[in-house]
From TrEMBL:
PANTHER family: CELL CYCLE REGULATOR CCRZ, PHOSPHOTRANSFERASE YTMP-RELATED
The Aminoglycoside phosphotransferase domain, residue ranges: 20-221
Gene3D superfamilies per the UniProt record, alphabetical: 3.90.1200.10
Superkingdom of the organism of origin: Bacteria
UniProt keyword list: Transferase
Protein name in UniProt: Phosphotransferase
Keyword Disulfide bond in annotation: no
GO molecular function: transferase activity
């Protein structure tokens, strides 16, 4: 990592100070010089330029392709804060997510990048493939998979859009000027908008407020939307449990199983 910092300092010039920005990949850095601040990332998706043009992420300042093939992007360093869980019920969140899901420019860019639409069948196939290698399957997972298989045809939705696929409140940034951004687009997919809406509503919004939140987003809360959101939340809960089991994250695994049990208790409401 220190080698990369030195390399970036050489790229920018000696007057720039470079230091890691954290994160799981170790590909992100901050740089500053005389009041100027940049967020640097190695090998960001070309999708970033369109996101910047749409005002969804902080402004892209420049992109440089290096001799070794790496691409370095520089964005304005956002002066602001991450959203807290309690902030997620705001209309600004609903409006920005609607803007993302409605953007033809974002959709065309992902298609040009070769992204194939995510379908319920492909989600289910991936889950079943992962479960083949599990020596022990929790009963809750077996029950959840049975529900997914039983309802996979009913939740197929034709009008797929660009979805972020990780709407955790830590990925929402509010600038000091009250401009909201959604960052960390490495997992973006072309999918049913329910794949974003379900986790957001289930994680952050009181159930009695779902209708009003979706109204601010621009949708009516229908039985079909409820079923699609539930299906994807259930699928993501299984994925999270399998990931934590593989990583031996005991505490997170227990929390995930408890959450899955709560979700499964709602099945009778969906039938």
């Amino acid at each position: 990592m220190k080698l990369m910092e030195n390399w970036l300092e050489h790229l920018l010039g000696k007057e720039w100070e470079v230091f890691p920005a954290g994160g799981a990949t170790g590909e992100a850095y901050f740089a500053q010089k005389e009041g100027q601040k940049l967020f640097l990332k190695r090998n960001s998706s070309p999708f970033l330029a369109v996101l910047s043009a749409e005002g969804i992420v902080p402004k892209l300042v420049w992109t440089k392709r290096m001799e070794n093939g790496d691409v370095i992007t520089a964005q304005h360093w956002l002066s602001g804060r991450e959203l807290k869980a309690k902030d997620m019920d705001g209309e600004n969140v609903a409006r920005l997510l609607h803007k993302i899901h409605s953007s033809k420019e974002l959709l065309e860019m992902l298609k040009r990048m070769g992204k194939q639409p995510l379908t319920p069948h492909s989600v289910l196939d991936d889950l079943n493939q992962a479960l083949k290698y599990e020596p022990y399957i929790f009963p809750e997972i077996s029950q959840a998979v049975q529900y997914l298989e039983k309802n996979v045809q009913e939740v197929d939705f034709e009008d797929k859009v660009v979805c972020h696929c990780d709407i955790n409140h830590n990925n929402w940034m509010l600038s000091d000027h009250q401009q909201l951004y959604l960052i960390d687009w490495d997992g973006a997919m072309i999918a049913d908008p329910a794949i974003d809406l379900g986790p957001l509503l289930y994680s952050y919004i009181k159930e009695e407020d779902w209708g009003s939140w979706l109204s601010a987003y621009g949708l009516e809360l229908t039985e079909n939307m409820l079923k699609r959101m539930y299906w994807y939340v259930l699928a993501q809960a299984i994925t999270s449990i399998l990931w934590n089991k593989a990583k031996d994250n005991v505490k997170e695994l227990g929390t995930g199983l408890t959450s899955l049990q709560v979700l499964l208790s709602k099945i009778h409401q969906e039938n």
